[in-house]
Amino acid sequence: MRQIIAMGGGGFSMEPDNPLLDSYILKQAETTKPKICFLPTASGDSEQYISRFYHFFNKQNCDPSHLSLFNPLSRDLENFILEKDILYVGGGNTKNLLALWKDWGLDSILRKAWEEGVILAGLSAGAICWFEQGVTDSFGEGLEPITCLGLLNGSNCPHYDGETERKPAYHKLIESNKIQSGIAVDDGVAVHYKGQEIHKIVSSRPDAKAYSVFLEKGIIERELQTEYLGELNSLI
């Protein structure tokens, strides 16, 4: 089963005291102690970011590791990647992430991993990278479209509620046909795909949502059903 879990924002790096999204990701693996590998490429393999990953996941029932392209542990990246259960891609500069992945051949390795059932997950740059297109600030000032890996159809806009310029920029880009229609995702929301279809949308915050945004005699923004992961916890 090909699975991708794309977060608009959240997880250990943005909500260190709210484990709901990261716990959800771990639960999707078909093993009691999943091997989860962090890819911090978009942050330039920030040591602080890597440290925060281990700070959270070392406390979970999993086997955490990371892949630094600036200091690789193995020359055989394909076997290193394919033995994992979950690949978790961090945020940062999407353009640099895609360029480095292509140069190392990691783009094709990640596609193979996805096809073989390794769960792909990530937030911000680590979410839009899986789509055909995304909205990014990677080029400097302003928000622009970027062509991504194309594992998922359409476009993606993260931080939809977390950064005030995201929503109007996404609407304007779709309206001017500079980017395809797609999915806008608030911080604290994860869109879980199985194949090309949305399996479930979950959130770590009660009011956070995801939206289908498309052009039809003007911009249409349609709220998608989102399940707050804290409901059951609050009832206990």
Describe the structure.
The protein is built from 8 helices and 14 strands. With 236 residues, it is of the alpha/beta class. The protein has one domain (3-235): Class I glutamine amidotransferase (GATase) domain (Rossmann fold), CATH 3.40.50. The protein has an 8-stranded mixed β-sheet, sandwiched between helices. Strands 7-6-8-9-12-13 form a 6-stranded mixed β-sheet. It is globular.
Strand content: 25-35%
CATH level-3 fold name? Rossmann fold
Q: Average pLDDT, to the nearest integer?
A: 94
Helix/strand-derived category reads alpha/beta
Quick rundown:
The chain has 236 residues and is an alpha/beta fold. It has eight helices and 14 strands.
Please write out the topology:
Blueprint: E1 3-7, H1 20-27, E2 35-39, H2 47-57, E3 63-66, H3 77-82, E4 86-89, H4 94-104, H5 106-115, E5 119-123, H6 125-128, E6 131-136, E7 144-147, E8 152-157, H7 166-175, E9 182-185, E10 189-194, E11 197-203, E12 210-215, E13 219-224, E14 227-228, H8 231-235
Parallel strand pairs: 1-5, 2-3, 2-4, 4-5, 6-8, 8-9, 11-14
Antiparallel strand pairs: 1-10, 6-7, 9-12, 10-11, 12-13
Please supply descriptive tags for the structure shown above:
236 residues, six-stranded mixed beta sheet, single chain, Rossmann fold, alpha/beta
